[in-house]
Write a structure and sequence with these properties.
Diaminopimelate Epimerase, Chain A, domain 1; 2 domains; 5 helices; 18-stranded mixed sheet
């Protein structure tokens, strides 16, 4: 099975062109083996680029643990680059079918190859039941700056809460997949490898959740770190950055346009408070090879 390794600002996946390859029958096993960074190709998961009846291509995205996710912002940019660069559909406006519907993407090209992609991520989902977030006795229409302490005991044995300047209030958003944002002064002081899996699997998150810690430099600039459900610490998360943009507007911490610094690079986000979130960032092809089934 032929594959291509690609990344969007360090959020790396193995991509399989199912216009030419057969979708694997034992997909969970294949994804787990290919994603392994020691014994496989290595990546945050595997994305299959498939034919679509309603778009230029369909993206099926699997986390490294084999679980299928609805959407990946960095992944869909790479899918658009692959579709254009490999001749599946060579238009500078593409439509890609995802688990959250058909997304529209505008391509920036240089030398006949895609360099950056602007994605209409669609409007955020803010209704708790649809994110989903199950807060006992909660009757508000949005989960914005809600204290997290009643639902989890954060381990402060090494003083990380004080060191990071954590604001222990959460804001939850779905971009087709669920996200929780918490703010702090210094994201590097958060022991993400310990805190991430605890928050991901809280009972209040019925489908688990992607976790983001964010520090705000100004109304137009933030730094964030991410724990992705089913994968762990990743260098970037496009849907997560989109959720962080929405969270900033909802809480009044940031404006409608932000530059988000992620460990793997930068993303530009924009949300007018009502319609779609727009995300712009790069997409890079690294190498191709053949997987021995």
């Amino acid at each position: 099975m032929r594959f291509t390794k690609m990344h969007g600002i360090g959020n790396d996946y193995v991509y399989v062109d199912c216009f030419r390859e057969r979708f694997p029958s034992q997909v969970v096993e294949v994804v787990q083996r290919m994603s392994d960074r020691h014994f496989g190709v290595g990546g945050d998961g595997v994305i299959f680029i498939c034919p679509s009846e309603k778009a230029d291509a369909r993206m099926r995205m699997f986390n490294a643990d084999g679980s299928e996710s609805e959407m990946c912002g960095n992944g869909v940019r790479c899918v658009a680059k692959y579709v254009f660069d490999h001749g599946i559909a060579q238009r500078e406006q593409l439509k890609i079918e995802t688990g959250v519907g058909v997304l529209e993407l505008a391509l920036e090209t240089s030398g006949g190859k895609v360099s950056r992609v602007r994605v209409d991520m669609g409007p955020p989902i803010l209704v708790p039941d649809k994110i989903p977030v199950a807060l006992p006795g909660f009757s508000e229409s949005k989960v914005v700056d809600v204290p997290i302490a009643p639902f989890v005991k954060l381990d402060d044995a090494d003083g990380w809460i004080a060191a990071s300047g954590l604001d222990p209030r959460m804001t939850c958003v779905s971009m087709g997949n669920p996200h929780v944002t918490l703010y702090c002064h210094d994201t590097t002081k958060v022991p993400l490898e310990r805190v991430g899996p605890v928050l991901e699997t809280l009972p209040i998150f019925p489908r688990r959740i992607n976790v983001h810690f964010v520090s705000v430099a100004s109304a137009g600039e933030v730094t964030m770190r991410t724990w992705e459900r089913g994968t762990g610490i990743t260098l970037a998360c496009g849907t997560g950055a989109s959720a962080v943009c929405v969270s900033g507007v909802l809480t009044g911490r940031t404006g409608n346009k932000i530059l988000a610094h992620l460990p793997g690079g930068d993303l530009q986000l924009e949300w007018d408070g009502a319609g779609s979130v727009f995300m712009t960032g790069g997409a890079t092809e690294v190498f191709s090879g053949e997987w021995q089934r």
